[in-house]
Amino acid sequence: MTISETTHARQLVSTALAAMLYEVSVNPKPGLVDPVDAGPHPDMNVFMFIDSAVSLRRYFDECVAAGEQFTGGLTALPDLFQTIRPAGIEAEKDMFGATHGVNTHKGAIFSLGIMLTAAAFQDRHPKVVPTGNAGLMQVIQKMLAALIDHDLANGDMHDVRNLTAGEYQYVKYGFLGIRGEAAAGFPVVMNHAYPFLARRTGSINERLLDTLLHILLYADDSNLIKRSGNPDILLRVRQWVTRFFELGGSQTAEGVSFLQKLNQKFKQENLSLGGSADLLILTIFLALRNGIIRSDQNTN
Ligand SMILES: CC(C)(COP(=O)(O)OP(=O)(O)OC[C@H]1O[C@@H](n2cnc3c(N)ncnc32)[C@H](O[C@H]2O[C@H](COP(=O)(O)OP(=O)(O)OP(=O)(O)O)[C@@H](O)[C@H]2O)[C@@H]1O)[C@@H](O)C(=O)NCCC(=O)NCCS
Ligand SMILES: Nc1ncnc2[nH]cnc12
């Protein structure tokens, strides 16, 4: 595979990296690292996230090249996913090298790598793939048509001691986690987070904070469930989010004050929103790609 040096390819890669850096910059984020507070992640800080994001440039180059240079048709798109999966495993090594062993972006390597590859393919095939997020969703669904069967339904789940959080939650509760969200074409992002962000007003920080909280209403975040030890946490968190929006969200003093309290609560209960952060990264990627957020229009 030859890395593409076209302006378009470089723009796609820059947009992916920017999405990661925007996400970690948003504050105050409950349950997550931001420039002010590491939340329930004492082993991480914002500089580590910068190092982690920057270490992924080569991988993102490979994703774009794979998407642009794929010669199979729409029905062969599962092969495109198989092309980038080994690159994702190598990218995890780059990330762990950059963070000295801390898991900052494992989920994002998977999710954003898939979305970036699909976007590169979509842009190369305007005659067969519809434009916009709907077309992108279709490409992703086709790429991942075999994922659930391969990883979960037919996976080896006999020794629970060797299961990841996502695999364990599949066996115990039937949750499909990141794989289910990805295989469906990221519906939480496409159907909820992105349209919400597109109509939200305020500064970029306020719009992205509110979008993160909106994501919590829909996402089954396997990090949150793992840290809590009980899927009922999803319902509790959704009640907190409802209260946040009743108070006016991040554009009111009451909303911000509630958010600060949530931040403390997430720290006290050691609750992480790592999966939801990744869905915010994807939403930002699309928003930057489609011009829905622009840093020169950071108005209040
Ligand atoms: C398919 C892979 C993602 C592998 O999945 P795996 O089974 O290894 O992992 P999962 O437990 O399923 O979760 C992976 C990460 O996905 C993010 N995530 C969780 N829920 C969702 C969701 N609903 N939608 C989208 N994304 C979701 C999340 O990643 C983020 O959180 C991490 C940081 O949070 P933190 O709490 O600190 O997490 P820990 O490291 O666990 O720390 P402690 O709690 O212990 O302190 C960070 O990664 C964020 O990005 C989940 O963590 C993919 O990796 C893959 O394909 N790998 C290659 C290997 C392979 O092929 N495996 C398949 C078998 S054939
Ligand atoms: N800001 C953040 N904090 C913790 N985990 C994350 N995963 C992705 N972004 C994150």
UniProtKB/TrEMBL annotation:
Superkingdom, natural source: Bacteria
Keywords on record: ATP-binding, Nucleotide-binding, Transferase
Annotated GO biological process: prosthetic group biosynthetic process
Positions in coiled-coil regions: none
InterPro entries noted in UniProt: CitG, TriPribosyl-deP-CoA_syn_CitG
An example molecular function term from Gene Ontology annotations: ATP binding
Keyword Methyltransferase belongs to the record: no
A Pfam family matched in the record: CitG
Catalytic reaction list: 3'-dephospho-CoA + ATP = 2'-(5''-triphospho-alpha-D-ribosyl)-3'-dephospho-CoA + adenine
EC number: 2.4.2.52
Family: Belongs to the CitG/MdcB family.
Protein's name in the database: Probable 2-(5''-triphosphoribosyl)-3'-dephosphocoenzyme-A synthase
Species of the source: Lentilactobacillus kefiri (Lactobacillus kefiri)
